[in-house]
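User: My collaborator sent over this chain with a note saying "see what the structure looks like." That's all I know about it. Can you take a look?
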Amino acid sequence: MDRVYDHLVTVLTDKFEVDAAAIRPEVTLAALDLDSLVVAELYVVLQERWGVPLAEEDTAADPTVAQVAQAVADRLPADGAHHGGAPR
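Assistant: Without extra context I'll predict from the sequence alone. Here is the result:
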C-alpha cells in the first residue's frame, strides 16, 4: 500500500493543491477541504493510474487518506502490477 499512498499524496499535492503538511493517513478528505466533485475526480485519476475500478461507495462516507489508498491497494492484482497509464 505504501506506493499507492505515496502516489495519492503526490496527486493531492500536485493536482489538487493540498498542503503536503496537512496530509496524514488519518485525515479525512473532507478535512482537506475536498468536496464531493473533487473526490470523484480524485477517484478517476486513481482509476486511470492504477487500472482498478473505484467508486465513492467503495470507501467510507468521509474516507481518510489511508482508507482511499487501501481501497486502491485492495483492488490491485496480487503481483502488484498495475494496468493503468504511466505514473503521473
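A starting point for your reply to your collaborator: The longest helix spans residues 36-50.
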